[in-house]
Amino acid sequence: MPTDLSFLIAATTRWLTRAYPTGGGVLASALCEAQVRQAVTVAAWLRYPTSMDAALVAVAGPGGSARLDWITGSDGPAHGGTGGGDREADSAWRTWVDEVVASWAASLLGAPALAAAAVTALGTTEHLDGLAVEFRRLVAPDEHDRRAAVLLRHPDLLAPVAELHRAQLLSVLATPSAAESPDDFPEAC
Question: Confidence class of residue 182 from pLDDT cuts 50, 70 and 90?
Fold first, then answer.
């Protein structure tokens, strides 16, 4: 049974990069995807902190992208669009999108202080056991990163998705193991 959440991370990353595309070429797309993947990974690891949590979501499924598609007006199957692929193939990966993880990732991308606190809080999860992982593109994006993900770094554009479950993320980060208080985070992600 998969416990690494790679299926959920890949689908949620794909959804976010489609909902908030980059305007640049291949390099910009790669930089944008790297930032989104880091944000989604942090969010997924916080949402499902143990191997048991990961195994349970693998069995139950994360819920899919239908509500996210509706909120953002994406061209998902719920709206008759296919997002560029045939309807069945496009629907399959969308079932593995996790709405809460997408919301948390959007919150992290729009608020650097929140992203730093979330990365620090990963120490309370099982996912970092024995790993040396760096999330530089998420917590300290350079100018190329910012230009590549201008839509994904804009708090106002992210607000409809980020606000869905931001309170829950702040609650997770406010636990005694979190490095900072939620009062230190900007109200609008």
Answer: very low
| Distances 112 to 33, 57, 101, 184 between C-alpha atoms, Å | 17, 28, 17, 11
Q: Residue for token digits 């709206």? A: 79
Instruction: Report the C-alpha gap between 158 and 152 in whole angstroms.
Output: 7
In eight-state DSSP terms, residue 130 is: T
Reading phi first (left if > 0) and then psi (alpha if -120 to 50, else beta), residue 89 is in: alpha
Residues 6+ positions from 44 with CB-CB distance below 8 Å? 5, 8, 9, 12, 98, 101
Look at residue 154 and give its three-state secondary structure.
coil
Cα Rg of the chain, angstroms: 16
pLDDT digits (tens, 9 = 90+) for 29-58: 999 999 999 999 999 999 999 999 999 999
Instruction: Give the ranges where 24-83 is alpha helix by DSSP (H).
Output: 26-47, 51-60, 66-72
pTM (2 decimals)?
Answer: 0.84
Cβ proximity of 48 and 12 under 8 Å:
no
